[in-house]
């Protein structure tokens, strides 16, 4: 299965998402979006396919969001996209693209919605939270 993750290795949510993909037996294409951001067309397509608005795809925490006044409701989607592409840290993460869909995997277990049911055992996040049981089934 072709899977791409737009990843930030410094982000726990992104690391957990990548680990869940791998625990499904899939080695994804890992794109460090801070050094290799998606094109404008790709970013727009991912946001749309994930069912998000551009505003929902912007990361506020740990970014220049406030300094750039990106919360201003008068800013257009094009202006917000320009800011995200100029400073990719503003792109929320991790975006995951599979043949089954696109998700902004926040929380990380959202990625399970677009992965095959091929997990072979229990999975816990870095903080110890159990996401999959011993049979590889999602814990609700």
At a glance:
With 140 residues, the chain is of the alpha+beta class. The chain is built from 3 helices and 6 strands.
* Helix count, DSSP H or I runs of 4 or more residues: 3
Number of strands: 6
Overall average residue pLDDT:
96
What is the helix/strand order?
A: EHEHHEEEE
The global form is elongated
What does this structure look like?
With 140 residues, the protein is α+β, with helices and mostly antiparallel strands. The chain has one domain: 3-Layer(aba) Sandwich (Glutaredoxin), CATH 3.40.30.10. 23% of the residues lie in helices and 15% in strands. The protein is built from three helices and six strands. A four-stranded mixed sheet has the order 2-1-3-4, sandwiched between helices. Strands 5-6 form a two-stranded antiparallel sheet. The protein starts with a strand and ends in an 8-residue tail after the last strand.
Output the keywords.
140 residues, alpha+beta, Glutaredoxin, 6 strands
List the helices and strands and how they pair.
Layout: E1 4-7, H1 12-23, E2 29-32, H2 40-49, H3 77-86, E3 95-98, E4 101-104, E5 123-124, E6 130-132
Parallel strand pairs: 1-2
Antiparallel strand pairs: 1-3, 3-4, 5-6
């Amino acid at each position: 299965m072709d899977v791409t993750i737009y990843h930030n290795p410094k982000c726990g949510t992104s690391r957990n998402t990548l680990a869940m993909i791998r625990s499904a037996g899939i080695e994804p294409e890992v794109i460090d979006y801070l050094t290799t951001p998606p094109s404008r067309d790709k970013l727009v397509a991912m946001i749309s396919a994930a069912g998000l608005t551009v505003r929902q795809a912007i990361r506020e925490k740990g970014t220049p969001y406030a300094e750039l006044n990106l919360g201003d409701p008068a800013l257009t989607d094009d202006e917000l996209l320009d800011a995200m592409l100029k400073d990719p840290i503003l792109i929320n993460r991790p975006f995951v693209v599979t043949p089954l869909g696109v998700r902004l995997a926040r929380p990380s277990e959202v990625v399970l919605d677009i992965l095959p049911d091929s997990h072979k055992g229990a999975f816990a996040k870095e903080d110890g939270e159990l996401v999959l049981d011993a049979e590889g089934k999602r814990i609700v």
